[in-house]
Amino acid sequence: MFKTRQNLLSVLRPLCILLRITGFALFSQTTIKNDSKISYFTVFNCVTYIFHIVYIGYAVVNTATKFTSAPDTLRLVYALVFLVNAFALIGTNIIWDKYKNDKFLQLLKQFYNFDKKLQRNNIFLDYEKLRSRSAAVLIIEATIYAYFNTDTAYQFWKMGIKPTTIFLDFIYYGGLHAMQVTMTGKCFTLFAIIENIFDRLSFTMKTDEASPDMVRNIRHLYHETYELVVQVNEVIAFQLVVPFCVTFIMVVFHIYYQIVDSSLQESVTVLVWLSTILLKIVVVIVQIHGALTSVKSYLILKCVFVPILWLVG
């Protein structure tokens, strides 16, 4: 059923490609499977730093323009909400992420090494399923955002806005949406792996002979999985909670703004964008809930098999 030649790198590949392209990962995928550290001053990383600095500078200019050109209080409040949302994303994905990049690399190394340990114990994850689900979520969300950005640029062109401004805004909004996709990718992929690990541990306990050595071994693997969960919480919790909170506020205000502004009431593109944001939040929450459900399922089995270990000695 499972191919031993596969490993967790195949599952992490879609996420790693996205993180590398956007510059949110300062390391390549091959770094995960060896003992090498991040080379912070490679040509690619230096170009990434410059681009991110320019990007932050344009974000400041864009936000200041929104404030100074706001014709009424409603537009001024919208500019404020947009500022909080944009810089929450920038702060956590560009600034904070640089600080946590090494810890994120170490986290991926832990996942990779733990997968090798599972394989040595004849426990294999659903690599194809995990990779396909992760890639599908990333591609669908990125495609919808690309449609929104393209349609927004087209609307700006019809309004007579300068082509240079349209291009810069397209890059700016595309960057913000790329940060949204990477957040989804990190949370969905890592928690899907955790859920699958607990499922495989539970499956092994249900199907294999309940010997003391097997139960003892599974218990050790469970505790190591728990340590992975703790590390995931430490590394990505801040990047998850802060942007999700401000994004939800942005969505709520945008719904009100669309109701008030007659020019947006018939905009299908904005409705698709709002629906995507809300659906993305639901998908991440459901995936985290699935991982927690797998943990509870394992704990029930543990209550059944641990007494066997105690009785047998």
From TrEMBL:
A single GO cellular-component term on record: plasma membrane
Superkingdom field: Eukaryota
Localization in the cell: Cell membrane
InterPro entries the record matches: 7TM_chemorcpt
Membrane topology: Multi-pass membrane protein
One annotated GO biological process: sensory perception of taste
Family the UniProt entry places it in: Belongs to the insect chemoreceptor superfamily. Gustatory receptor (GR) family.
Protein name: Gustatory receptor
